[in-house]
């Protein structure tokens, strides 16, 4: 560590480096940590229209978990999150594996498949609200082709409305997953494929036991991106279903927002956002420890 | 990477991939086509695909009802401003993490990125209050700062991965020749990292452009960007699909065009840390 010949410069550089990183750390610290702590604190108050430091203990949390809308929100987010993780990984990987074997006009294809990601969730939600509309969209088109019994109407069925949202979410996100996976596949040494073929290992086994484990870093990046998208799920719901029919496609972020700004029940909104925070922390912290804790000194 | 693929195999792959590509592109195409239809044709059954009377009427109506240019200009200022500001703050930070790593660099990076996973609603109210206190609610300045903060972790992370690929010896050589720290970053590091910085800026421009949660909540009329423009057409215009499509097309056109002309940077930007 201290084997540098030009010590003074090294020391100066270290200081400069610390100073250079300060603006970033400060902003992250003040905004995220400060804002979050503030929210957590006021979640123990019975603030209504304006934040008031009138502490009521866990009242807001009891009320929160007794609310049906909150329970529906949590369930929806879990279904959406799990499905979008599984499906976007599978679809993205299969498409990437296809593309890795060289196709024509690859760059154009890649751009087109990335386009949905470059759209705002608001646009995505509106477009899919329309495509899934039974009288105007997919159902109508297929029925007009002669399949009059065809039934595909997720947005107006409370039981499956969240899967209608999932389709739009997957449409937007899968292209990005594919491009990430493709980048990972391209990074794999061509000799590995040759070696596997010489050894007579079938293609699917090569993918499953050799290539996928080698792509770990890419998988982690992808996981981070998808997961942060899941927690943020809000715009898509607002544009596509507004939480309906009834409350059947509500999500936690919308619950928080509605209680803060429309329900004029700040305390309840704060308690809900604290629960979201807690849920994220429960997932992230053990994972981060596993991933980064072990090799701190590398 | 390159495996030998027979021509037939390549043709089959191309067909499958392009079928998937068209399927993915179809909703965008459909929206654009619908924007040129009349309202009656937009909801006609069976739907007409290409053979309809093309009209620009929807665009005229949308333009008349809301001033597109104002929303567009707000979007440009907000997305551009937050990206430039973010990069200015991120370059020194990424420099320090890439070239003067300490024992905690990895931790800081990880910790910082994890803020990206926190639910944004957790800080919504505090930021809303700050904006009210400072009297900057519904101003472009507020959104520039907020969106910069939201995307800063990604900017730093991306720049860090690009900077790490630049050999530290080059910077050292510049220092040996008597370059000051400022000169080192400004005239040696930055020019070498231009492709990386360009990709970072492009991606963050798009992210900021599309950000709806914050823009919808912190603006009313004055500073509203295109996300608000399109959202305003969703509720009262619910049944006018041709006009909604025209508004959508107007909102997404700048990004589609920008993306088309910067494919390489876009793909590099979107694959950030993943490509090694």
TrEMBL record, chain A:
InterPro entries in the record: ABC_transporter_permease (IPR051393), MetI-like (IPR000515), MetI-like_sf (IPR035906)
Superkingdom: Bacteria
GO BP terms, alphabetized: transmembrane transport
PROSITE patterns, alphabetized: ABC_TM1
Domain ABC transmembrane type-1 residue range list: 74-289
Membrane topology designation: Multi-pass membrane protein
Transmembrane segments: 21-44, 77-99, 111-131, 160-185, 206-231, 270-290
GO cellular component terms given for this protein: plasma membrane
SUPFAM superfamilies: MetI-like
Compartments, as annotated in UniProt: Cell membrane
Pfam family, one: BPD_transp_1
Keyword annotations: Cell membrane, Membrane, Transmembrane, Transmembrane helix, Transport
Family under the similarity heading: Belongs to the binding-protein-dependent transport system permease family.
Protein name as it appears in the record: Carbohydrate ABC transporter membrane protein 1 (CUT1 family)
UniProtKB/TrEMBL annotation, chain B:
InterPro entries given in the database record: BP-dep_ABC_trans_perm, MetI-like, MetI-like_sf
Annotated keywords: Cell membrane, Membrane, Transmembrane, Transmembrane helix, Transport
PROSITE patterns to which the protein is assigned, alphabetical: ABC_TM1
Cellular component terms (Gene Ontology): plasma membrane
Domain (ABC transmembrane type-1): residue spans on this chain: 72-262
Gene3D superfamilies the UniProt entry points to: MetI-like
Transmembrane segments: 12-33, 71-96, 117-136, 142-163, 184-209, 240-261
Membrane topology: Multi-pass membrane protein
Keyword Transport appears in the UniProt entry: yes
CDD domains linked to this entry: TM_PBP2 (cd06261)
Subcellular location: Cell membrane
Any single GO BP term: transmembrane transport
Family of this protein: Belongs to the binding-protein-dependent transport system permease family.
Protein known as: Sorbitol ABC transporter membrane protein /mannitol ABC transporter membrane protein
Organism for this UniProt entry: Silicimonas algicola
């Amino acid at each position: 560590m201290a084997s540098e010949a030009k010590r003074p410069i090294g020391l100066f550089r270290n200081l400069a480096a610390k100073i250079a990183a300060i603006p970033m750390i400060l902003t992250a610290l003040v905004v995220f940590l400060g804002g979050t702590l503030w929210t957590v604190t006021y979640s123990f108050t019975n603030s209504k229209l304006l934040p008031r430091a009138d502490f009521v203990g866990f009242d807001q949390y009891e009320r929160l978990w007794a609310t049906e809308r909150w329970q529906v929100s949590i369930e929806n987010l879990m279904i959406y999150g799990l499905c979008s993780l599984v499906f976007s990984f599978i679809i993205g990987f299969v498409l990437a594996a296809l593309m890795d074997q060289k196709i024509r006009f690859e760059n154009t294809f890649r751009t087109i498949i990335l386009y949905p990601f470059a759209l705002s969730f608001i646009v995505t939600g509106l477009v899919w609200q329309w495509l899934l509309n039974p009288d105007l969209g997919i159902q109508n088109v297929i029925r007009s082709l002669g399949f009059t019994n065809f039934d595909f109407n997720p947005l107006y069925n409370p039981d499956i409305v969240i899967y209608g949202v999932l389709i739009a979410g997957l449409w937007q996100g899968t292209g990005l997953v594919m491009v990430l996976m493709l980048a990972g596949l391209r990074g794999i040494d061509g000799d590995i494929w040759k070696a596997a073929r010489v050894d007579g290992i079938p293609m699917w086994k090569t993918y499953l036991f050799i290539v996928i484990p080698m792509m770990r870093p890419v998988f982690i990046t992808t996981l981070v991106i998808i997961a942060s998208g899941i927690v943020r799920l809000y715009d898509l719901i607002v544009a596509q279903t507004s939480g309906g029919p009834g409350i059947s496609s509500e999500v936690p972020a919308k619950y928080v927002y509605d209680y803060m700004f429309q329900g004029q029940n700040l305390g309840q909104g704060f308690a809900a956002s604290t629960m979201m925070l807690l849920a994220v922390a429960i997932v992230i912290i053990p994972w981060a420890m596993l991933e980064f804790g072990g090799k701190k000194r590398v | 990477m390159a495996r030998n693929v027979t021509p037939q195999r390549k043709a089959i792959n191309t067909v499958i991939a392009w079928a998937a590509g068209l399927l993915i592109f179809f909703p965008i195409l459909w929206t654009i086509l619908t924007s040129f239809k009349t309202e009656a044709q937009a909801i006609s059954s069976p739907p007409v695909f290409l053979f309809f009377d093309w009209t620009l009427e929807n665009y005229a109506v949308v333009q008349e009802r809301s001033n597109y240019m104002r929303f567009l200009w707000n979007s440009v200022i907000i997305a551009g401003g937050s990206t430039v500001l973010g990069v200015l703050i991120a370059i020194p930070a990424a420099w320090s993490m890439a070239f003067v790593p300490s024992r905690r660099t990895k931790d800081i990076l990880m910790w910082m990125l994890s803020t990206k996973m926190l639910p944004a609603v957790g800080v919504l109210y505090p930021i809303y209050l700050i904006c009210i206190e400072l009297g900057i609610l519904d101003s472009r300045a507020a959104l520039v700062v907020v969106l910069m903060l939201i995307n800063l972790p990604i900017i730093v992370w991306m720049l860090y991965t690009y900077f790490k690929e630049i050999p530290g010896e080059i910077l050292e050589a510049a220092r040996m020749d008597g370059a000051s720290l400022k000169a080192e970053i400004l005239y040696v590091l930055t020019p070498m990292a231009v492709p990386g910085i360009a990709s970072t800026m492009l991606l963050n421009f798009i992210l900021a452009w599309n950000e709806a949660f914050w823009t919808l909540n912190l603006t009313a009329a004055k500073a509203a960007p295109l996300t608000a423009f399109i959202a305003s057409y969703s509720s009262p215009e619910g049944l006018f699909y041709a006009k909604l499509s025209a508004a959508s097309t107007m909102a997404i056109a700048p990004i589609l065009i920008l993306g088309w002309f910067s494919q390489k940077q876009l793909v590099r930007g979107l694959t950030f840390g993943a490509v090694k």
